[in-house]
């Protein structure tokens, strides 16, 4: 199998722990990942963090 064809982009709902106003909260977010189809492992893609940092304070979210 072609190595490049073994990967595809996926979206995944993830629960993260975040400190908000001094309290730890569990928040569900959608992240973008790269799925390695031969193993089923989803690797987080850095673009998710970029989108969060760029748009978090503009009323947009992941």
Question: What descriptive keywords fit this protein?
Answer:
62 residues; 15% helix; mainly beta
Strands, total number: 3
Alpha-carbon Rg, integer: 14 Å
Q: Any idea how many domains?
A: 1
Report the helical percentage.
10-25%
Q: What's the overall geometry?
A: elongated
N-to-C span = 33 Å
Largest sheet: 3 strands, antiparallel
What would you call the structural class? Answer: mainly beta
Number of helix segments? Answer: 1
- Strand ordering within the main sheet: 1-2-3
Content of β-strand: over 45%
Low-pLDDT regions: none
Describe the structure.
This protein has 62 residues and is mainly beta. The chain has one domain. Helices cover 15% and strands 52% of the residues. It has one helix at residues 47-55, and strands at residues 7-20, 23-36, 41-44. A three-stranded antiparallel sheet has the order 1-2-3, with helices on one face. Strand 1 and strand 2 form a beta hairpin. The chain is elongated and about 45 Å long. It starts with 6 loop residues before the first strand and ends in a 7-residue tail after the last helix. The model has no long low-confidence stretch (mean pLDDT 83).
Ordered list of secondary-structure elements with their pairings:
Elements: E1 7-20, E2 23-36, E3 41-44, H1 47-55
Antiparallel strand pairs: 1-2, 2-3
